C-alpha cells in the first residue's frame, strides 16, 4: 500500500473535527468506500472530494444519511445526463 493513495480515517476525522463513527455510518450506507489494512481504516484519495461533499451535506446542512443518499444518487444521475447530452451534441455537430 502506498501512503499517497490513502488517507487514514483517523487523520481525516481529526482534520474535520468529527467522530470516526460518522465515516463508518457513511460506509454502511454505501456513500463512502473505506479500506481496512493492518487494523487501520483508510479512505482512498479519489474518494476525498466526494466524502467531503457528503460530510458537508450531513453536518453543515444537517441532512440525515437517507437524504444524503438520495441527493448523491440524483447528482450522479444529473452528471450522467449531462455527459450524454454532451455526447449527443458532439454527434449532432458531425451532421451540421
Describe the structure.
The chain has 96 residues and is mainly α. It is 61% helix and 11% strand. The chain has four helices and three strands; from the N terminus they run βααββαα. The chain has helices at residues 9-16, 20-28, 48-60, 65-93, and strands at residues 6-8, 35-37, 40-44. Strands 1-3-2 form a three-stranded antiparallel β-sheet. Strand 2 and strand 3 form a beta hairpin. The longest helix has 29 residues, at 65-93. It starts with 5 loop residues before the first strand and ends with a helix.
Assembly state = single chain
Number of distinct helices: 4
Percent of residues in helices: 55-70%
Secondary-structure element sequence?
A: EHHEEHH
Q: For the report, how would you describe the main beta sheet?
A: 3 strands, antiparallel
**Which structural class do the helices and strands define?**
mainly alpha
Characterize the overall form.
elongated
Tell me the strand percentage band: 5-15%
Q: What Rg do the Cα atoms give?
A: 17 Å
List key phrases describing it.
96 residues, 3-stranded antiparallel beta sheet, 11% strand, mainly alpha, elongated, 4 helices
Q: Could you give the topology of this structure?
A:
Elements: E1 6-8, H1 9-16, H2 20-28, E2 35-37, E3 40-44, H3 48-60, H4 65-93
Antiparallel strand pairs: 1-3, 2-3
How would you sum up this structure in a few lines?
This protein has helices at 9-16, 20-28, 48-60, 65-93, and strands spanning 6-8, 35-37, 40-44. The protein is mainly alpha-helical and 96 residues long.
